[in-house]
Design brief:
Length: 252
């Protein structure tokens, strides 16, 4: 028996048990990390839910943001501070809400938006990602139809203005928004995926002409913040359901 180290120990079985322990610990760690946002849970009325799940909340972790934008901690226990204009259609749990005001302005349902930071999104070099084409010398339209100068028509046929410029995502090298110069002289942004560019003009299916006056605006004529993007995109997308009463009914 001289020279025997492990004796009757089955190394393969020990390795299997160690793997199981490691995998269980990995699942536990991943689940807790997944609970850094969106927890603790709340019910439809905003009250804390007693049963938060099998795993406890992780301890707060501080993340240092790049380009001198400070730091954030998660979880931070901060819920949504907005008072939304909506009410339950039934007292039973899980019942849908119905808007009590203008859902496009109030951010209800498909027009909902998240409270992102009110700062422009930056690229890897610390520069704003999305800028008007008039401020970038490195981009030009090399193919397709140039929408600048074309009239903009809403779903009901109202001509609300014309395309004044294109806002491009420089790192991704694509058009994110079209800038509309409205008939009243003000400007607003139109998400490119919700625009249909034709030779006779640009069509916006999601909104009627009367809705363009309330489209969220940008503070700066040359920058858009992450929060402003949320509100702008939510407003247009919400029109897919709330632009008129017919869209609220089943479509056959």
């Amino acid at each position: 028996m001289e020279g025997i180290i492990v004796g009757r120990i089955d190394l393969a079985l020990v390795s299997l048990y160690l793997f199981w322990l490691f995998f269980a610990g990995l699942v536990y760690w991943l689940q807790r990390e997944n609970m850094r946002e969106g927890y603790p849970l709340e019910d439809e009325q905003g009250n804390p839910v007693g049963a938060q799940g099998l795993f406890p909340l992780p301890d707060p972790k501080t993340f240092k943001l790049p380009h001198g934008r400070g730091q954030v901690s998660a979880p931070n226990g901060k819920g949504d501070s907005r008072e939304l204009a909506m009410e339950l259609t039934s007292p039973s749990g899980g019942s849908p809400f119905t808007p009590t005001g203008d859902p496009l302005v109030d951010g209800i349902g498909p027009a909902a938006w998240a409270e992102r930071r009110d700062l422009p999104e930056l690229d890897g070099h610390g520069h704003p990602k999305i800028v008007p084409m008039r401020m970038s010398e490195n981009f030009q339209i090399s193919a397709g139809r140039d929408p600048r100068g074309l009239p903009v028509a809403a779903y009901d046929g109202d001509v609300v203005g014309k395309i004044n410029d294109l806002w491009i995502d420089e790192p991704e090298q694509l058009v994110r928004y079209l800038e509309i110069e409205l008939n009243d002289g003000t400007a607003c942004l139109l998400p490119m995926p919700l625009a249909r560019v034709r030779k006779y003009g640009v069509r916006v299916h999601s909104l009627h002409g009367r809705h363009f006056a309330n489209i969220p605006r940008t503070r700066s004529p040359n920058q858009v913040t992450m929060l402003e993007e949320e509100k702008i995109c939510a407003y247009y997308c919400g029109g897919k359901l709330y632009a008129n009463e017919e869209r609220l009914e089943p479509q056959v």
